[in-house]
Amino acid sequence: MRNYLNFEDKIKNLENELDKLKDPYNNEGLSEVDTNKISKIQSEIDEKLKEVYSDLNPWQITLVARHEDRPKSKFFIDNLFEEFIPLSGDRFYGEDKSVISGFAKFEGNSILVIGQEKGDDLDSRIKRNFGMMRPEGYRKTIRLMRLADKFKIPIIFFIDTPGAYPGVGAEERGQAEAIAKTIECSMELGVPTISVIIGEGGSGGAVALSSSSKVLMLSNAIYSVISPEGCATILWRDPTKTLEAAKAMKLSAKDLLNLGVIDEIITEPVGGAHRDRDFILKNIKNSIFKNLNDLKDLSRDEIINQRKKKFLSIGRSGGFVTQSTDENSLSMKTSFFMDIKKRIYTFKKELIIFGFLAFIFVILYYFL
Amino acid sequence: MNWISKILKVGEKIKTNIQKKFPTKKQQSESKWISCCSEYPNLKSEIFNEEQLNTCPRCDRHYPFTPRERFNHFFGKNNYEILDTPRPPDNPIDWPDKIYEKKLKKARELTGHHCAVMVAQGKRDGIKITSFAIDSRFIGGSINNSSGEAIVSCFAKALEDKTPVLGWSEGGGQAMYQSGIALQFMVKTVLAANTFKKESGQPYINIYTNKVYGGITASFAAPSLSDIAFSEPKGTMIGFAGQAIVRNQTREELNSDFQTSSRMLEVGFVDAIFHRKEINDKIMNILKILLHKKNNEFEATDNNTKIREKISA
Ligand SMILES: [Zn+2]
Across chain B, how many H-helices and E-strands are there? Predict the structure, then answer.
């Protein structure tokens, strides 16, 4: 049973038709006419998918990003890595099953993999808490990141979460504290770190695992400060205005690449990642391989500095500021115009008096 | 009088009664009275004055302090310098219909500052301190590119001048109108705080005040991102998710002390709670201990310079 999104009606009808034709209990062997019909419908489906998916709006992208059939972290962990050994627990309080973590081999090399997992059916979704991490999950992540750092093992994150879990227990065990410490730890790692946003990058819960040397994003994934529903409720008191909200927040991979928030887009097959899992596996594998390769010859200090420089430069172009020449520094250089503006402000009184005198002088000159 | 006008009259009565019970925001702000804790309303002037420092004399509830009020109180009136901080573009993600520009304009008129974070440098007891304070009147104190850069530049300036950092944290989190960009300021501010702590050898003391939520508590103002975390008492709320979200999404029962500063002290995320009247002294106590300063060292050096000045004169 496939799941369809509300803008896929025509595709749904065509695929149902196709299924009927292919059903062995409906036909005794396929006749020539039928195979022709099948290939005709198939190409119609391909056409339609291409048409619909070539121009998805940000809200439709959000629906694809949250699609039930979309491959989740567990799928990627199972299929991209060998010898995966799951490791559990934060050594303080508990084990958070909304994040899968462990060491493995990637193309023969050691790797730490950490993935936020939403689950595939109702049971696993409940078990995984719908991908919403608690403080224990972040603390487990910190513990394993430090371990990987100690043994010089690169880290891959898969991001797919509506956000950090907003429960009473999570709050009182330090949800905010755990997120901040995860970001802090990420910034100190001397090994390459790569985050892949595969579905939903929900707010602080996603940022915590996206403070990496490289942040990659699937073409139909989203990344935003709040869900479109939440944004629409706050802005218009109307949770149905999701398209307006999704558009305004620039949550798509394309927009975020333009803003410099992410580093690379990984292309999905036509119709979304769930329509061709081999296709998306191959693209993710190539992209991770290439990025790891780019970072592999850097020293510890170079890796830390590259990451620092990258994040400090985000949001620093335009306005009354220019890129600092030393991008690694915390301070932002003020621009020439800002300088002039500042000077005008400091000599405001003098300028006003001077202007006034000049004015009187001109008037006197005119009349005398 | 027919029945329709009777019903209308009753309706009017209900309406005026409701209005009496729930005054509008404007009425509240214009009124001389405030309902705080006692059975009868308190006079605002009992709470909002220089002696009470916006705290209730009866129940010790702390009402917001603006950055200027804070710096005036901590460093002494105008005994500090407001530092210039960067001004990146107002609307980096092109939020439509100039909604955000309009909000910014209003907030700037109200506060007289270009962003929610004000950074100041001054001296207290002879120790030079770099301090940031967040203004919740400025769009809920949310962190956008300007206020985020202000936090970053506060740590940068303190690192350059080798001074301690004193943060007064409040506000609702990251600015929705700058979505993806605002989120990255969680990383940038943590990075700045971390760089400062590692390279300066100076302490970072953070104080919770008013309401502190979301990306603010989850980045530079996180309890153990700072070396010392103090809080103001009643009136201060500290959390990640707001109470409405917790209630709606989990349907869990919330205790009356949930996310209050006293509860955060109990569960171990705050070092101590101090009244606004004494917190400045407590901050100086701990700073002097951490920096190995003798209590009368500064008075002594101050006297020495005075003597020297006299001699040279
Ligand atoms: Zn009171």
Answer: 12, 10
- The structure tokens 């409906």 sit at A26
Question: Are A213 and A267 contained in the same domain?
Answer: yes
Chain position carrying tokens 């005075």: B306
Q: Is residue A151 part of a domain?
A: yes
Give the closest of A173, A234, A259 to B176, CB-based: A234
Spatial separation of the C-alpha atoms in residues A282 and A285, rounded to whole Å? 5
- Residue in A166, A183, A342 nearest the CB of B245: A166
Domains in chain B: boundaries = 63-312
Distance of CA B111 to the CA centre of its chain: 14
- A245 with A277, same domain: the answer is yes
A180 touches chain B (CB under 8 A): yes
Centre of ligand 1 to C-alpha B42, Å, is: 8
Judge: domain B63-312, CATH 3.90.226.10: yes
DSSP for A141-199, please give it: HHHHHHHHHHTT--EEEEEEES-S---HHHHHTTHHHHHHHHHHHHHH--S-EEEEEEE
List the structure tokens of A196. Answer: 């892949």
- A283 in the same domain as A348: no
Look up residue A105 and give its two tokens.
């081999």
B239 touches chain A (CB under 8 A): yes
**pTM of the model as a whole:** 0.86
- Residues with Cβ within 8 Å of A307's Cβ and at least 6 positions away in sequence, in order, are A186, A187, A189, A193, A211, A212, A213
A189 touches chain B (CB under 8 A): no
Q: What is the pLDDT along chain A (368 residues), one digit of tens a residue?
A: 688 998 888 899 888 888 887 776 665 565 566 778 888 888 888 888 898 888 899 999 999 999 999 999 999 999 999 999 999 999 999 999 999 999 999 999 999 999 999 999 899 999 999 999 999 999 999 999 999 999 999 999 999 999 999 999 999 999 999 999 999 999 999 999 999 999 999 999 999 999 999 999 999 999 999 999 999 998 888 888 999 999 999 999 999 999 999 999 999 999 999 999 999 999 999 999 999 999 999 999 999 999 999 999 998 865 444 344 455 567 665 555 555 555 565 566 666 777 777 777 777 777 66
Identity of the residue in B156, B186, B253 whose CB atom sits nearest the CB atom of A331: B156
Whether residues A237 and A358 fall in one domain:
no
The complex scores an ipTM of 0.86
Sign of the C-alpha dihedral computed for residues B44, B49, B54 and B59 taken in this order: negative
Shortest Cα–Cα distance, A70 to chain B (Å): 23
CB pairs under 8 A between A and B: 201
